[in-house]
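tokens incoming
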């Protein structure tokens, strides 16, 4: 999971890839906690997330309970 610029410095989306198959899965229009969390809830089979250092992604992955997929930060 990483961000990508719709308009550099102003608007960013999220790129979600399957690292095993080396293919993109989805593009999200933002990188907000709500949108990423909503996507993860719709895809409950996700068990491991590789993400950048974004705190938004960290919050979306972990959730309020502190449990969620195992997250690796690169």
């Amino acid at each position: 999971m990483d961000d990508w610029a719709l308009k550099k410095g102003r608007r960013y989306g999220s790129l979600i890839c399957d690292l095993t198959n080396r293919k993109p899965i989805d593009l999200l229009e933002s990188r907000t906690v709500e949108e990423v969390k909503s996507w993860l809830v719709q895809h409950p089979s996700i068990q491991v997330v590789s993400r950048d250092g974004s705190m938004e992604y960290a919050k979306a992955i972990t959730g309020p309970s502190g449990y969620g997929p195992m997250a690796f930060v690169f």
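note: The two ends are 10 Å apart (CA to CA).
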